[in-house]
Design a protein that fits this description.
single chain; alpha+beta; Porin; 2 domains; 16-stranded antiparallel barrel
Length: 492
């Protein structure tokens, strides 16, 4: 636009120049006439009274008129040229406006087409498969489904100690081959990535309970409208003890501590609120909720419930604390500190959410736990303590037809540590102790475990071979054993 207006500016300058030239010419003519009059002899030109106007001769007047007419003609010609140039500029401006409008429309159309293509791409189904991540089918942000499967094959040897043999135990080793776990997991989201689901089925013998052979282990839905307030409901693990919440696929040793197996709160049906990162600082997390209290796949028949709350601090920042071992070989320390409390009111299970079912009534249990986890440069340390206290020690049949049923009050702890070398080989060790409280179940004696293990990771926890040995001992001489296990896992 600025370049097109230059001719108009140039014509305007030329017109101004002509006008100034014409005025200068008139002044020059007038001055020349006066000079000519003064140059004549005094006797030829009579002296003029200066109070009278200057007289101009016809010849001079005619010459001035012609020059003015010529200047006016040139001005008129220049005006005509300027008007033509203005018209040309208006035409060019209109053309530019049309081109600009067309360009904007074209850009809007391209933007719309690109958005439509992105939308179509986002809604186009995609399928991806990778070892360790499963088979995933996705339709943009509308729906996703990931299918994974896990198998653990284990061989276990149990050999009574010399003390147990002297106490009457058969001096023979037990050797057992088993599919320890066989699981199928379906996870994903529906309608929005904020609405997720998880389904896990257990198909091996020890994946189900002996008195209720139902295969669903997990079946829950999570919704995350806010970072600080998320909800999960269905059948799932009660987020109480750390090692129980860690998947059995991600353990540092072949299986969990005997303390965890006895005192943890297992899967149940319920609902809880939680936040993986309160305030977005990566320091504080919480879980609080209510469950039925009778464990997975069970229908409660008493008034009551399992109420719990758990808090966690990660003062050095968030990290994956649900994987045992430091497979990332963290370049900076990682630390998690947690504490939890629970109250299972009127449960009919001997171990709160596990164990045999009472026939003479129910028991209320108070639970508490605390744990620590640390990772740094391949080093992994974890410690956890549990407490479980029943409101009464024994249930008695007034008619003495059914023998007494005992609750199981106890406390215990374990300490576990390991180091993952640069090659995917890990050495680990653990000590645990379980102590009964009060006049509790006579079949719950003082128990200890001491042992260690060696693991080789082909593909981290997704493909690994693990072995461990534990010396199991305590107050009951009959229960003293040497336990050795070898286990292979594939989690595709």
């Amino acid at each position: 636009m600025r370049q097109l207006s230059s001719p108009m500016k140039e014509s305007t300058v030329r017109m101004r120049t002509l006008v100034v030239s014409a005025m200068a010419l008139c002044s020059l003519c007038v001055a020349s006439a006066g000079l000519a009059a003064r140059s004549e002899p005094d006797d030829a030109v009579p002296k003029r009274d200066h109070s009278e106007p200057l007289a101009v001769t016809p010849a001079v007047e005619d010459s001035l008129r012609k020059r003015l007419d010529s200047a006016l003609d040139q001005l008129e010609h220049q005006r005509t040229i300027l008007e033509a140039q203005q018209q040309t500029l208006r035409t060019q401006q209109a053309t530019l406006d049309e081109l600009r409008t067309a360009r904007l429309a074209d850009e809007a159309a391209r933007t719309h087409e690109a958005a439509e293509r992105r939308k179509q791409d986002a809604e186009r189904p995609t399928v991806m498969a990778r070892v360790g991540e499963g088979l995933t089918a996705k339709v943009g942000e509308l729906f996703s489904l990931t299918l994974r499967g896990r198998i653990q094959v284990q061989v276990e040897s149990l050999t009574p100690t010399q003390t147990a043999a002297l106490a009457g135990q058969p001096d023979e080793s037990e050797l057992a081959f088993q599919v320890r776990r066989l699981r199928f997991v379906l996870t994903g989201y529906a309608l929005t990535p904020k609405l997720t689901y998880s389904i896990q089925l257990g198909l091996s013998n020890r994946d189900t309970e002996s008195d209720l052979r139902l295969i669903p282990r997990d079946a829950y839905v999570s919704y995350a409208p806010l970072r600080e307030l998320q909800i999960r409901f269905g059948q799932m693990k009660v987020p109480f003890g750390r090692q129980r919440v860690v998947s059995s696929s991600s353990l540092q040793l072949v299986d969990r501590s005997l303390v965890t197996l006895e005192l943890n709160l297992d899967r149940d049906v319920g609902v809880y609120l939680f936040s993986p990162d309160v305030g977005g600082k990566g320091v504080f997390q919480y879980w609080v909720g209510i469950f039925g209290g009778e464990g997975r796949n069970r229908l409660g028949n008493t008034a009551g419930g399992l109420y719990f709350a758990r808090i966690q601090l990660t003062p050095l920042g968030l990290y994956d604390d649900l994987v045992e071992g430091d497979h990332e070989r963290s370049s900076r320390p990682r630390l998690a500190l947690s504490a939890a409390v629970g109250y299972n009111q009127h449960t009919n299970r001997q171990r709160s959410t596990l164990g045999s079912t009472y026939t003479l009534g129910d028991v209320s249990y108070l639970h508490a736990s605390g744990d620590l986890q640390f990772k740094y440069c391949g080093l992994f340390v974890q410690a956890e303590a549990f407490y479980r206290q029943a409101d009464r020690d024994v249930l008695t049949d007034p008619k003495r037809v059914v023998k007494d049923e005992y609750s199981r009050s106890a406390w215990g702890y374990y300490v576990q540590a390991g180091y993952l070398f640069a090659r995917p080989i890990e050495l680990a060790a653990r000590f645990g102790e379980l102590r009964p409280l009060g006049a509790t179940d006579p079949t719950l004696p003082l128990q200890r475990e001491l042992g260690g293990g060696l693991s080789y990771y082909f593909l981290r926890h997704n493909l690994k071979l693990q072995s461990d040995y534990f010396y199991l001992f305590g107050n009951d001489a009959n229960a003293q054993k040497h336990q050795a296990r070898l286990q292979a896992q594939l989690f595709f």
